[in-house]
Amino acid sequence: MPSPTINFHSIRPYHGSQHGGFEELVCQLAALETAHTLPFHRKGAGADAGLECYRVEADGTETGWQAKYFFEFGSNEASQLTKSFNQAIASHPQLSRFIVSLPFNLSDGRVGKRVSERDRWNRWLQARTESIAPRISAFSSSIMRGLPRPPRDRRNCSRMWANNTVPVRCIRPSGQEGQEKITQ
Q: Given 3-state DSSP classes, what are the helix, strand and coil percentages for the chain, each rounded to the nearest 5?
C-alpha cells in the first residue's frame, strides 16, 4: 500500500497549530533517520535555540533540524532563517550539519531580473558557508515525500500527518516511540 501524499497546506495541527504539526513531522522523520544507538533530542515547544531537534553523532558532533512552515522564500523568510541559524550555531558549538526543512520546493523561475527562491536560497547558503563550518542542506517537500523508509514506519508517518482522522504513531527504528508522539 503506497503512502498517502501529504498536503502540507492542510497538515494535521499539533499543539494547536499547523506550524506545530509541521515541526513535529520533521522531528519524527529526523528520529526515523537516527540510528537507535545515537542520542536524539526533541527540543519541545517554545524557544528552540534555532533547532527543533538534533542528534549527537558518534564523533560528538551534532546534526540539527530547523522547520520553517512557510510557502515562499522571500527576504522576510530568509531573515527568519538567518535568525534561527545564528541561534543554532551560538547554542550548539558542536553543530556540524544544519538541515532546513521546508513544506515546499524552492522555485527556480528565472524571469528577467526577478530573484527566484532558488537564487535567494543559494545566496543565503553562500553567505552562511563562508562564515561558519556547518554543512547546510534543504529538506524540501519532495524530499520528505520520497524518503526511503521501512514500509510500516513511512506509511504510518505519512498517514498520520496527511489524514487528521487516522489514529497512528510514528515509531523510531529501534521500535521505541520517540518523545512527544501523538497518542490518539
A: 35, 15, 50
- Cα–Cα separations (whole angstroms), residue 51 to 41, 43, 48, 164: 10, 7, 5, 26
CA nearest 25: which of 152, 124, 170, 148?
Answer: 170
Residue 155's CB: how many other CB atoms inside 10 A? 16
Q: Are 154 and 4 in contact, with CB atoms under 8 Å apart? A: no
CB atoms closer than 10 angstroms to residue 100: 22
Buried b (16+ CB within 10 A) or exposed e, 141-152: beebeeeebeee
Q: Is the pTM of this model over 0.70?
A: yes
Which of 137, 10, 123 is closest to 66 using CA atoms?
A: 137
Instruction: Name the helix (H) or strand (E) containing 137.
Output: strand 135-139
For cell 561558519, what's the residue?
132
Per residue in 79-123, pLDDT (tens digit) is: 999 999 999 999 999 998 888 999 888 888 777 888 899 999 989
Grid cell for residue 163: 489524514
**3-state secondary structure at position 87:** helix
Distance separating alpha carbons of residues 162 and 160, to the nearest angstrom: 6
